[in-house]
Amino acid sequence: MRTVFLGTSEFAATVLERLVGGHGRPDDHCPSLVLTRPDRPAGRGRKLTPPPVVERARVLGLRVAQPENVNDPATHDLIASVKPEVLVVCAFGALIKEPLLSGYELLNVHPSLLPRWRGAAPVERAIMAGDTGTGVSIMRLTAGLDSGPVCLAASEPIGPDDTYGTLAPRLERLGGELLVDALDTLDRGESLQFVEQDERLVTYAEKIAAADRELDPTYPAADLERIVRALSPHIGARVVLSDGTMLGVSEATLAPPDTPPGEGVYEHDDRLLLACAPGTLELLAVQPPGKRTMDAGAYLRGHAR
Question: What pTM was computed for the model?
């Protein structure tokens, strides 16, 4: 089946690899064209960096284009030139408008069990909320935000120790398998059975903002522990120290109930702790400004009082 793939993130890159067949093995649904976002400045040096999908597509030997606007006529002509039967979208990062929406069958790979967690950060928000499970939905892309009907979905449990870094790869694999299942169905000449989402059950996964990263000690320690896991390792949580310094936090755990109380970020028995309301969060791996991530013991030895 002739496809065009639209995606940008690492999540999308893994789904693309499965669509190709993995490790360079040709697949019936190998995209004739991959569209992704333009290179963007990244890192401290603000060096222009290609999206993960670009790097993966090049390794796989796929044709890649990075239009500034996917909705301009030149991009429409480029898509039309490969005569796709289906457009596949996964974490593309830009709004797709008419006439593309009505001109093609558009299947979107979304890492949640819709209608829960529509939006930009469904994996992170599921962990933050304390959900015990999530999943992947294959849906028809429409003008609304992840509001189209769903044809396939599968669940994935969220363990008490799951981080974004452990959960996302499982969802990537699940999304790739579901997508191939959907395309196989179409390739056999069968119809996908779409079901409209129940609008009464909608929740939104807003993009992670700077405020979402901050560990506010006026919140329960259990809430903050989930934030750390949800943002590790790709974004990172952080806490403000008494001198105003922002300390990155990439690993934390709930301290035992009998932990002696303190204020703010404090040390006890060579442990780095954050007093919360209620509870205490033990900071296990931290990153001082301008330095590498280190365990709490190394941080405390370097900041002896």
Answer: 0.94
Q: Is the dihedral of CA 159, 164, 170, 174 positive or negative?
A: positive
pLDDT digits (tens, 9 = 90+) for 38-71: 998 876 677 889 999 999 999 999 999 999 999 9
87 and 70 in contact (C-beta within 8 Å)?
no
H or E, element range at 86: strand 86-90
Q: What one-character DSSP code corresponds to residue 110? A: E
Q: What are the Cα distances from residue 184, in Å, to 38, 191, 205, 256? A: 31, 10, 30, 51
Residue 155 corresponds to which amino acid? S
What phi, psi does 48 have (nearest 5°)? -60, 125
C-alpha 88/C-alpha 86 separation (Å) is: 6
Structure tokens at 253: 């755990």
Element of type H or E holding 54: helix 52-59
